[in-house]
Amino acid sequence: MKFKIISALLLLIAGFFMISCENEQSIEFKRYYSEGAMVYQSHCQNCHAADGDGLIGLIPPLNDSLYLKNNKTALACYINSGMKGRIVVNKKSFDGAMPANNLAPMEVAQVLTYINNAFGHKLGLTTVDQAEADLGKCK
Amino acid sequence: MRKLAIGLALLGLWSACKPGSDKKTLPIFGSRTPISKTVDGKTVTDTIYQTIPKFKFVNQYGDSITNKSLDGDIYVADFFFTTCPSICPVMARNMLTVYNTFKSTGDFKIISHTIDPKHDSVPELKKYADKLGVAGNTWWFLQGKKEDTYTIAEKNYLVAVKKDSTAAGGYIHAGYFVLIDKQKRIRGAYDGTDPKQVEQLIADIKTLQAEPDEHIAQ
Asked: Which residues does B98 contact at the CB level (< 8 Å), separation at least 6?
């Protein structure tokens, strides 16, 4: 009997910790995401549109989950160094130039968290450490 | 009873003051000079409005486009360049809405002047039009001498904008859509980056289309 009560209590405590842990993570995610939405608005939206649809054949959309997944660690450099040349997004070919940006690693992490989870994606959080590491590998 | 009478009177007043929304006319921008001339022995006064003068540019198909190419058309003019990363995509997105609304009406055109003719050659403009899904002859992307484009922009199209703008210079980059009527007079200027103003532009084009044809002194 005593054992049962103790184990139930332990379980309750463990559960409580798990929930609070998850909450902390989701709070962090939400903070990144909402800050990222602001960065998106001021640096990306003009071209890629509010709904991430891009502009017909001129500017690629950001709604191709597979593309984002396959280029996950390169995205930070695409943002800050810009892009040039032919790419295929959503089975459509684009051949233009994206200008470079000069975002702080934190802003890059925030906007990537936004892009990776807006427009129908569920690709999770990009932390500032990840963004910093990815930016360090830019050519 | 008395209250009812007052109420009715107020209602009458209110409806008398209501503007006739379907009789809306657009302002005419630019300078105007009165002229007197003799017609059938009588002196009549007429007004010369500022109009868009003669011009000659080349479109994305390599065809010469002059002021005559737009005779009988209502048109919208703007200024852009294909490599512009800031406001141009927004303007193009908004202009596409205008294009899609009127592309099947015969008396309407859009002319987008490049302000970077060095880079935006005829094939470059054609590529840009293709990427936007623009075909046919409703929307022309025009290239010409840089001075010609800047002169017509500042002296002719953007006079309507200049009046309200406090910032000196940089009108060309400000992303205005300028509405020109069939008589080549400026009838409106809209911020091409603001979807609300572009909605107004679409409404105003419809108003212009409903205007009866008139001949004006030139």
From this structure: B76, B110, B177, B198, B201, B202, B205
**Overall residue count recorded for chain B in this entry:** 218
Percent of chain B residues past pLDDT 70, beyond the cut: 82
How near does any CA of chain B get to the CA of A110, in Å? 21
pTM of the model: 0.80
pLDDT given at position B70: 96
Question: What are the two backbone dihedrals, phi and then psi, of residue B166, each rounded to the nearest 5 degrees?
Answer: -90, -25
Judged against a pLDDT cut of 60, whether residue B149 lies above it is answered with: yes
CB pair distance less than 8 Å for B92 and A55: yes
Q: B2-32+47-210: which CATH number, 3.90.420.10, 3.30.70.3270, 3.40.30.10, 3.40.50.300? A: 3.40.30.10
Domain ranges of chain B: 2-32+47-210
Strands (E), chain A: 83-89, 92-98
Per the DSSP assignment, residues forming a β-bridge with B35 are B46
pLDDT, one tens digit per residue, over B56-76 is: 999 999 999 999 999 999 999
End-to-end CA separation in angstroms for chain A: 65
pLDDT greater than 70 at residue B122: yes
- Do the beta carbons of residue B37 and residue B204 sit within 8 Å? no
List the single range of A87-96, B1-10, B12-21 with lowest mean pLDDT.
B12-21
Q: Which residues of A touch B86 (CB under 8 A)?
A: 46
Work out the mean pLDDT of chain B and round it to a whole number.
86
Contact yes or no for B76/B181 (Cβ under 8 A): no
Taking CB atoms and an 8 Å limit, are A55 and B86 in contact across chains?
no
- The pLDDT assigned to B60 comes to 98
Does ipTM top 0.95? no
B93 vs A49, A57, A99: nearest CB? A49
Q: List residues in chain A touching B: CB distance below 8 A.
A: 46-47, 49, 55-59, 97-99
Identify the bridge partners of residue A97 per DSSP, sorted by sequence position.
A84
**To which residue do tokens 């280029």 refer?**
A71
Count of Cβ atoms closer than 10 Å to residue A84 Cβ: 11
